[in-house]
């Protein structure tokens, strides 16, 4: 099952491509610059063992076409709506996994939510209900994803209006040895996306002894 990662040349897209390819999932990296995407794919492939699945680089529209079902949107928020508008007709019969966080311009320690309420809801509104949008992977550090020698140090909160689509996305995320939780409808993204700037604030603070922290869901003691 080939998945597409749009914005796959960026830090988070690169890390996800590495993690999924290592887990045996073929990846098509999509970028506005096909040559850059191809070069990035070759660079990432060289970091993986021979047993890993393939990573290919191509134009954004070609990457969507190469995806069997899953298309991951990992572009900067400034390009979120325009990217979706440019590929909307290609997303029929596919699932969009929106990992974009609407960070405030010039201030990654705050969000600037769109009128729809969140980036996930904005994507669903723009694409229409016929194309399922699942919000996920908002709170995972790009640095963590790219450090393959370390396990991903957090859980993943997943939301969306279509239960079958959420189940498939959770199954895909689990392939990276990460636990993912169904956190309800797309409106839950208003809370989930807003966690990211809080983590960024903590991670850059001189008052804590860590960076690149994530969040976990802890069960009560038995």
UniProtKB/TrEMBL annotation:
This is Reduced coenzyme F420:NADP oxidoreductase. NCBIfam families: npdG (TIGR01915). GO terms for biological process: copper ion import; NADPH regeneration. GO terms for molecular function: coenzyme F420 binding; cupric reductase (NADH) activity; ferric-chelate reductase (NADPH) activity; NADP binding; oxidoreductase activity, acting on NAD(P)H. InterPro entries: NAD(P)-bd_dom_sf (IPR036291), NpdG (IPR010185), P5C_Rdtase_cat_N (IPR028939), STEAP_metalloreductase (IPR051267). The keyword Oxidoreductase applies. One of its GO terms (cellular component) is plasma membrane. It comes from Halopseudomonas bauzanensis. PANTHER family: DUDULIN-RELATED (PTHR14239), F420-DEPENDENT NADP REDUCTASE (PTHR14239:SF0). Gene3D superfamilies: NAD(P)-binding Rossmann-like Domain (3.40.50.720). Pfam families: F420_oxidored.
């Amino acid at each position: 099952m080939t998945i597409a990662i749009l914005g796959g040349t960026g830090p988070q897209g690169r890390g996800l491509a590495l993690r999924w390819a290592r887990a045996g999932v073929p990846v098509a990296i999509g970028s506005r610059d096909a040559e850059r995407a191809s070069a990035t794919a070759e660079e990432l492939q060289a970091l993986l063992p021979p047993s890993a699945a393939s990573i290919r680089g191509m134009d954004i529209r070609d990457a969507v076409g190469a995806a069997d079902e899953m298309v991951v949107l990992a572009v900067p928020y400034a390009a979120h709506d325009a990217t979706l508008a440019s590929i909307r007709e290609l997303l029929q019969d596919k699932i969009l996994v929106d990992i974009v966080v609407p960070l405030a311009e010039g201030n990654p320690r705050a969000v600037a939510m769109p009128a729809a309420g969140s980036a996930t809801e904005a994507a669903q509104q723009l694409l229409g209900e016929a194309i399922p949008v699942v919000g996920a992977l908002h709170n995972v550090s790009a640095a963590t994803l790219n450090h393959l020698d370390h396990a991903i140090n957090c859980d993943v909160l997943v939301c969306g209006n279509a239960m079958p689509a959420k189940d498939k996305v959770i199954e895909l995320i689990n392939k990276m040895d990460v636990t993912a939780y169904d956190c309800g409808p797309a409106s839950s993204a208003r809370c989930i996306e807003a966690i990211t700037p809080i983590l960024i604030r903590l991670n850059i603070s001189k008052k804590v002894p860590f960076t690149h922290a994530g969040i976990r869901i802890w069960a009560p003691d038995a």
